[in-house]
Amino acid sequence: MTGNFHSIKPCETSPTPPSDWSRRWPSQAYHLHQLIYRKHPEIGAIVNATPVNATAFSASAARLDTRTILECYIFLRDVADLPLSWVYDAPEKIGEAMTPEFPIALIENDCALVLVRTILDAFDRLEVLESTAEAVILSRLLGEVQPMGDEVIEELIEAFLK
To answer: What's the N-to-C CA distance of the chain in angstroms?
Structure first.
């Protein structure tokens, strides 16, 4: 699928026949996505998803620490935990908290939100997010999770992210 996603109107993606479009309201996600597209024009796709293990973190007080596996931190960076209320009451805060450099957040009791250049990028990041969440959950069964220290993180940033 190609095109200018920044100009899509809510009814253009609706399966409802045109005669019923006047009665349809866009979801709250539509407004949030439009705000993010305006703030970050380099973003080509925004995806809301509910991968099982990652969503478990959004529904718990546990933080998903991506500093546990090298690939996870390089690919995901730090995953923000954002309040669900921001989706409705302060979507601009989500636009500020999420950037191309920090493209993934878990929305409290709801979903994962991913900002990417392409849909394929979204798939890749969601796959790594879900694998990371599962690995952290399983690691806790074996004992205390041991994230990488700040020195290692700085080396990763220097080697792969600058």
So the answer is: 31
Q: Each residue of 131-159: b (16+ CB within 10 Å) or e? A: bbbeebbeeeeeeeeeebeeeebeebeee
pTM (2 d.p.): 0.82
Question: Which domains does the chain carry?
Answer: 26-160 (3.40.225.10)
3 state SS of 48: strand
Phi/psi region, residue 42 (left: phi>0; alpha: psi -120 to 50; beta: rest), is alpha
Distance CA 88, CA 114 (A): 18
Per-residue pLDDT for the chain (162 aa), expressed as one digit of tens each?
Answer: 344 545 555 544 444 555 565 566 677 788 899 999 999 999 999 999 999 999 999 999 999 999 999 999 999 999 999 999 999 899 999 999 999 999 999 999 999 999 999 999 999 999 999 999 999 999 999 999 999 999 999 999 999 988
